[in-house]
Amino acid sequence: MTRSSRRATPAPGYPSETASTSGAAPPADVPPSDAPKLGRRAEARRAAMMDAALKVFMEKGFERATLGDIVALSGGSRATLYDLFGDKEGLFLAVLEVVTGHISQLMNDVAESCGPPEEVLLQFGTSLLEALVQPDVMAMNRILVAEGRLFPDQLEGFFRSGPDQARGKVAGYLRRAADQGVIVVDDPMTAARIFFGMVTAGYSFEGQINPSRLGDAVDRRAYVQQVVRLFLRGLCPR
Asked: Residue 18: pLDDT above 60?
């Protein structure tokens, strides 16, 4: 996904993208420009294997899925899989990164936003919830809860570059808003964690057990509106 290089002019009284962001999470590491690139055929094989792996993982979970299942479905070979991903764990983490990667773009939107908190948080919270209720994301999250213990070190790296960084960017936005007097917040990171928890509470429990309880997009947006209203009520200047 690409973004336009043109940025909107900050509205008066609201946090600008150039305002202080001290304490926010650092940007994700950028691969070196001389990193080896796959050829077109290798990219096609990689995409086919990841697509097959996602289907197998969703159906069987991580532990019960086999490389044979994935190779048979993708039409590739074990040698190619090992060459591209190292092993089943490496393949799972690659699939997880792709499944959740679009959430990182939402974080970039928040990091560069210059709108009022009620608009920024509503847009972010709604987009986040819509991303989280997608079947592939829900399936991967169920696997992480059930089997993430099998590779804790690798998942810790994922959390640092994913959820932790996401919360850090929301915290950076809240800090900029506080610096300009739009809201009052003593601990932006804790406030960001609370906001994430409020948005995802129903999804994390009821929705995982019974997806029908998630409602439709209109219901979810109305829910996020209530979350934002309650959340910002605690951050209003006094």
From this structure: no
Mean pLDDT along residues 121-138:
87
Helix (H, G, I), strand (E, B) or coil at 9: coil
Question: What pLDDT score does 3 carry?
Answer: 36
Kindly state the greatest CA–CA separation across the chain.
64
* DSSP state string for 26-67: PPPPPPPTT-----HHHHHHHHHHHHHHHHHHHHHHHHH--H
Instruction: Check if the beta carbon of residue 49 is closer than 8 Å to that of residue 72.
Output: no
Phi, psi dihedral angles at 16 (to 5 degrees): -95, 160
Residue with tokens 């899989």: 81
Q: How far apart are CA 189 and CA 174, in angstroms?
A: 9
* Nearest residue to 110 (alpha-carbon basis) of 229, 218, 230, 3: 3
Residue whose tokens read 């092993």: 87
- Do residues 98 and 80 touch, judged by C-beta distance below 8 A? no
Long-range contacts from 79-82, C-beta under 8 angstroms, 24+ separation: 80/45, 80/49, 81/49
pLDDT digits (tens, 9 = 90+) for 50-78: 999 999 999 999 999 999 999 999 988 99
Q: Are 74 and 49 in contact (CB under 8 A)?
A: yes
